[in-house]
Amino acid sequence: MTQLPVLVMLSLLHSATYHFANNGNDDHTPAQANFTSTPWQHLARLKTVRLAPGDSILLRRGDQFRESLALSDIHGSPTIPIVVSSYGAASMPPPTITGLEPVSDPRQESGNIMSAPWPTQERPSQLFGNGHKIPMARFPAKGWILTTKSFGDSAFLATAPDSLLEHGAVAMVRSTPWTLEPRTLLRHNKDTLIVSRPAHNKLVPGTRFFLLDAPHAITSGTWGTLASTSRLRWKGLPPNLQASVRDGIRLDRCSWIQIAGLRIEASARRGIQATGDNLWIKDCAVDNPGLYGVELLGSHNRIMHCRISGAGAAGIHTQGKHNRIDSNSVLRTAMMADLGREGLGNGCCGGRAIDISGDSADVQANRIDSTGYHGIAFAGIFNRIEGNNVRHSCLTNDDCGGIYAWNGRLSQNLPGVAGSIVSGNIVADSRSDGPSAHGIYLDDAVRDVLVDSNVVSGNDRGIYLHNTNRIVVTNNRSTGNRYSQLALIHDMVAGPGWMHDNRSEGNHMEGLPGQSGAPEVASQQPQPMPLATFAKDTLCEDLLVERVCSSGGVVLERQVRRMKFGPEQIRNGQFALPLLWSGWPDLVQLSAGTPQECGSTPCLKIAHPGDLQKRSALVNDGSHFSVGAGQWWLVSFTARGDSAGQSLNVVLRQAGKSYAPLAPNRVLQLDTGWKEYRILLQSNAQEQEARVDFMIGSDQGMRWLKGVSVRQILKP
Questions:
Q1: Rounded to an integer, what distance in angstroms lies between the CA atom of residue 190 and that of residue 149?
Q2: Is there a cis peptide before residue 124, judged by omega within 30 degrees of 0?
Q3: pTM for this one?
Q4: Is the pLDDT of residue 536 over 60?
Q5: Where are the beta strands (DSSP E) in 310-399?
Q6: Alpha-carbon span 662 to 709, nearest angstrom
Q7: How big, in percent rounded to 5, are the helix, strand and coil portions of the chain?
Q8: What domains are there in the chain, each with its CATH number?
């Protein structure tokens, strides 16, 4: 038998247990509340006692508490913490702390609109009927309003029905692809909207926004608030509505407290918020918090075996050192359909399932599904992101990742996330309305991170290194990502020479039909050294006519399939004179290559003087053809550059109109020797006038091209 220290045993003998139940009585003494037969009724009764190490606060299973649990300046100890948990029959559901209050005294207004007073003085943040969250009124119901003119960063011109432009409505402004910012409408003059705070980025014509909680935008199945009368308004909703008006649990300046086995429901803003150290949250369910599910601001805290669903800004948010987040489920975070007046939270870049700010955090074995922005985002050194299953990220905002990190500021002098490890995770199916929903995404100035043994699939880019230094990518399996399996991009955001000493080794990268297996490498800046080195990677590509896997230029496996082809669609792909090709715009200079340059067959010489701001297109004049949705096209050619790594993009696009792409852009890096390339493209729409363009990147120098062919692959 384990012997407890004498002091611990004495503390346990003198500890108190306070029971709470819906049929309790607050007139009971603290001594009586120690017994299940004489519990207290209201959690506020705790303000009358001084909690000490070893004390317990127990809520009866099956009961619902319509109040917040607030504690401040209380402390357990390392051996005998203060416990907040449950009691009662194990067959009963866990006790619930709810932020809901019933909506009463409804009346009918014109247009089949119903209204009722706010349940409390607090403006409701959410509305529920029959246990389901009800969407807030939005205009337009789908899509966006576009600004036509801006005046600084807090006023813009846009056309919308005058009846909707009411004081108090919220403009959800997308000033960048990665933000969705709530800005309260203060006033309007004709079509000029003045909002409460500046946007994150400068507003420009074409900035997108929609209106939320506009009183006259209510349609059947939606609701809104009216501050001038403190009333709720709705249409076509069931009776017995309930509104979110309070938070769940708040701990201020506390330590050594354990919260276990509770359910926190429909909090107005935060389900559990705590400041302090050595706090444990275990086996809890936090459903539909308005902004944050669990927010811990302190060090040595732990969240484990919890389920957080329906948070507006973040499922789990921590600040501090040595925090641990393990074995939780974080579901349906920051969904567009669930947004309230506060959107994804104030400022930039809300909508993260797990958001870590601090050093030496362990984020392990969590299940994350359906997130508006990043699945897991971390900032701080020596963090470990291991064994997590992250799916369906980037559903509300763009330019994001299932797992994401950045330096905190665009500076090479900051440690950022140095020493961190991203290992053993599954990151799949990130998808947004733009082209930038990635798997593992290490952003500006991140350095000294190990990305090891992850499985990444179904994203835009599998592993994306953007302006990074000394990242080691090893033993990962990146398969079926739409644009590339591994991307290394150095763009105009960072200075010349910033991206260097990255390493890719021993990875398996496989593109499904229409996808690339080769790394995507591109730089828009002068670069005195390679962006990365590559060793022992296996690259596989499925062209329908064959599947080929290679490593270091050596073919490891080739599976050839018999297929039928349609007619050739390119005029003069052999470059006999006259060339019949042109450059657009005039930056590209074309000429027939010399025999010394071309070898035994003719080739096209492409001279590009270089312009860091532009890409130039190489067009085969008159080679327009029709494509159908879902058709497969095989583009083959031979090419080389005058320096290794020069980029060449292949695009299937409209021949006119908006020149919109009809398939994902394929980016190639040329060698100095002639090499044959074969690319499989699948058209995403029907188009009578399509063409294939070769896009020349911003890097200077010569390129040579010959033997170009474009043919449709037919069924065998």
A1: 13
A2: no
A3: 0.91
A4: yes
A5: 314-319, 324-326, 329-333, 352-357, 362-364, 367-371, 376-379, 384-386, 389-391
A6: 18
A7: 5, 45, 50
A8: 1-99 (no CATH), 101-242 (no CATH), 565-714 (2.60.120.260)
